[in-house]
Structure formats: structure tokens, C-alpha cells
Design a protein that fits this description.
The model has no long low-confidence stretch (mean pLDDT 96). The protein has a single domain (5-170), classed as Ferritin (Up-down Bundle), CATH 1.20.1260. The chain is mostly helical. It has five helices and no strands. The chain has helices at residues 5-34, 38-64, 84-111, 115-145, 151-174. Bound molecules: MU-OXO-diiron. The site of MU-OXO-diiron has 7 residues, from helix 1, helix 2 and helix 3.
Length: 175
């Protein structure tokens, strides 16, 4: 099976965004750790691990269908933040860029009659929807908790809960 050249090119462009997402979340985890926000650090570390999986899924797919997966250049993501709200707003912006890029690849697959890649992308369409909803909810919650003296403590607990809920879902999925 040979992937259409135009689709291969857009997938390779997209690889850079998944790599950047992997690094961005790692930078966010590191910032949270520095700030003593352990729950947040765990959450962003997990996000980073997931993005590494996404990167590899795209990478392996390109080679599987007869293309050439190109390792993208390494760019430094944003490493410093004003507060945890900015971390989450930046995350949402990054995810929206990834979603846009996936929709763009989908458009190219339709133009090129590449149903295999169209099918491969369905997982990511769902994944992006979930990630964007998740960050919108987190941002709402941070606003709700407000800026009182203990707010960071409660925000950190909320992130901890998200990590535990995710772990339980993974266990269930594995059976
Ligand atoms: Fe793999 Fe959430 O971008």
C-alpha cells in the first residue's frame, strides 16, 4: 500500500505538532514541580506520555503505509508561566492547533481518496474533542475556585483527582 504523497507530506508536518505537544506538557510538568504543585505535575507528565504515544502512532503509520516518517526538528516549547491558569490556557491553545491540523489532514485524505488514512484519523478526532473539553472544564474550575489563600491547594487536588480517574479508566479498559 502506498500513501498519496500529499497525505504523507501533511502527516509529516503534523508530526512536529505532536512532538511539540509531548515537549510542551513535559515543560509544564517541570514548571508545576518547581512550584510545588505535585498533582498538576503528575497530570501534565501523563499528558506528555500520551502525546509521545500519539507521536509514535503517526510515525509508525506513515512508515506502515509505504511513506517515510521524518523526525522533526526539536523546538523549545514555552517553559515559564505566570500561573497554573496560564498553563491550562496555553494547553487549550496548543490542542486547538493540533485539532486544526488533523482536520486539515482529513481534508487532504478526502481530496486524495485515501480512506485508510481517513479511518486512521478517527481516533484522533475523538481524542482531540475530549482533550479540548477537558481543558475547558479545568479552566472553568480554576475560575470557580478563585484566587483565595488556599486556592492552589484545591486546584492541585483537582488535578490529582483527574490523574486517579484516568488511571481507573485505563485499568477498566485493560480489563
Ligand atoms: Fe496529540 Fe492532544 O495532541
Amino acid at each position: 500500500m502506498i500513501i498519496p504523497k500529499k497525505v504523507e507530506k501533511t502527516l509529516n508536518v503534523h508530526l512536529e505538532l505532536e512532538a511539540l505537544a509531548f515537549f510542551s506538557y513535559l515543560a509544564m510538568a517541570s514548571w508545576c514541580e518547581k512550584e510545588g504543585l505535585e498533582g498538576c505535575a503528575k497530570f501534565f507528565r501523563k499528558q506528555s506520555d500520551e502525546e509521545h504515544v500519539h507521536f509514535m502512532k503517526f510515525f509508525d503509520y506513515i512508515n506502515e503505509v509505504g511513506g517515510h516518517a521524518e523526525v522533526p526538528p526539536v523546538k523549545q516549547p514555552k517553559i515559564d508561566f505566570k500561573d497554573i491558569l496560564e498553563v491550562c490556557q496555553q494547553s487549550l491553545l496548543n490542542e486547538q492547533k493540533v485539532t486544526k491540523s488533523i482536520y486539515n489532514i482529513l481534508k487532504v485524505t478526502q481530496q486524495e481518496d485515501d480512506h485508510a488514512t481517513e479511518d486512521f484519523l478517527q481516533f484522533f478526532v475523538m481524542e482531540q474533542r475530549e482533550e479540548e473539553v477537558q481543558f475547558k472544564r479545568i479552566i472553568d474550575k480554576i475560575h470557580l475556585i478563585g484566587k483565595g489563600p488556599q486556592s492552589l491547594y484545591y486546584i492541585d487536588k483537582e488535578f490529582e483527582k483527574l490523574v486517579s480517574a484516568g488511571n481507573k479508566d485505563e485499568k477498566k479498559a485493560k480489563g
